TrEMBL record:
The chain crosses the membrane at residues 264-285. It comes from the Eukaryota. This is 4-coumarate--CoA ligase. GO terms for molecular function: ATP binding; CoA-ligase activity. Residues 1-27 are annotated as: Disordered. Pfam families: AMP-binding (PF00501), AMP-binding_C (PF13193). Coiled coil: none annotated. Keywords: ATP-binding, Ligase, Membrane, Nucleotide-binding, Transmembrane, Transmembrane helix. Residues 477-552 form the AMP-binding enzyme C-terminal domain. It comes from Glycine max. Belongs to the ATP-dependent AMP-binding enzyme family. InterPro entries: AMP-bd_C, AMP-bd_C_sf, AMP-binding_CS, AMP-dep_synth/lig_dom, ANL_N_sf. The keyword Secreted does not apply. Residues 16-27 have a biased composition (Polar residues).
Amino acid sequence: MSGEEILSSNEEKYNRSQPPFGSRSGYNSRTGIYHSLIKLGIKHEIPTRPDLNTANFVLSQFPQAHLAEARIAFIDARTNLSVSYGELRRSIYSLASALFHGLEVRKGDVVFVLSPNSTLYSTICLAVLSVGAVLTTANPINTATEIAKQVHDSSAKLAISAPEELHKLVPTGVPTILTSHCSDGNMLSVEELIKGCCTSPELPQVPVAQSDTAAILYSSGTTGVSKGVVLTHANLISIMRLLLWSADVSGSQDDVFLAFIPMFHIYGLVFFGLGLLCVGVTTILMQKYDFQAMLDAIQKHKVNNLPAVPPVILALVKHARKATCDLSSLRRVGSGAAPLSKEVALEFRRMFPWIELRQGYGLTESSGGATFFASDKDAKAHPDSCGKLIPTFCAKVVDIEKGKPLPPHKEGELWFKSPTIMKGYLGNLEATSAAIDSEGWLRTGDLGYIDENGFVYIVERIKELIKHNGYQVAPAELESVLLSHPLIVDAAVIPVEDEETGQIPMAYVVRAAGSELSENQVIQFVAGQVAPYKKVRKVSFIDTIPKSAAGKILRKDLVSQSKYQLVSKL
């Protein structure tokens, strides 16, 4: 019996020995644990075969050979180039063979990928994983210094780079191949390796265990230094099986998806790079997000399903009616990677009543998953929730001062346990032990609560709470109020040190074009809707709010800017 089977068997025995938990919330008052009430059927059971790797799992879900040639996996939104599942399978086999036999990439070698979204991205990822190598991905807009740090930290043995990003890798000295052929150079490319391989390649037979490391993904570092999140093949297989389940319960098997979420990020990698290939859908690929290009792609390709982030949903609310576009094909928009405010969600539903809007929640450390709305009815009824625990997940809400588990409706730090939880942080035992306790519970760092019906609510990052006169103020709540103002396009709230009260909330605001909205008007607008201790005390107007590729506000950048402004005034 494998380790995972033993774990599953022990968990079943443990659950049978416990008193029954709440039939609506999943809460066990004796243990303080919330259980997902959604059970996976036999069809979606997570594979426990110890020698199954991520690539083999994904390829096993591809359409049968006689259907694979006609079924389109990807369409490049810019060039209209399409790739069938049959072509994709052959490309993965060819590249894997070339990496293993030609470039001698071996099990455990780390391969660094620096590229925007492309029809080759999944091929690269799956070829790397199939030979037992470890995938690490980076944001193409990162600086050469940031890239050098990740190459060094991950101990990358080989890099695969888009031609336009190559100059950032040269100083690292890591051997590099390009994604596509560059006419003015002699460097090897992925395209050439695929074309140059034999006509009937086979995947190299490399023994890979589910417990082996599959990927090292770097957290965005919105509040501190980014860390390498180590994910195993078991983690990725588990989250893909859950994505398959969610596609089934949502009826998304025949949808056309649009991908502008970057594939280097856990959200994009799990959805577009790996997971949706298991569902067999067609994905329209955008190299990067552009609002008008997104609208054009939805109209041209009759996109049904749009996995998105809050800034994109906000842009649809603020600008879609002014743009000439047809969004009638859209039937579902998902939101993840950052909190979506209740006000924006309600306005989106008012403007686009035929589109389902479902928010979810997850972390890189949980392979991108944790909560999900299985029905639009529930999503409408709970617009400020991010759904219920998905199958295989348990949760605790832990008092941040006393460390004790809390019952429904009490706010505390969310802790999770699931087969998707990371192995740890690369080379950082201290950070790993701070994040995962001895029983395997992941401390998320997010303040939240779970209600009597099992719906999960995220309040704020604990580190980002503003401490004002002994009270805790959540920036996300104030941002939600600010975004409801018709003349405010975007907003972010940060703490500013204050000698008398500890900290005060300061807002950075992006005004609508032509608006002369004043600082006092913004302060009064917020003051009329929140408790006195939550009031915004300072306002600074800014052209754009700095955000990560996944749409998270980079508060540390704004904190640095506020300190610089203060020093300048002094």
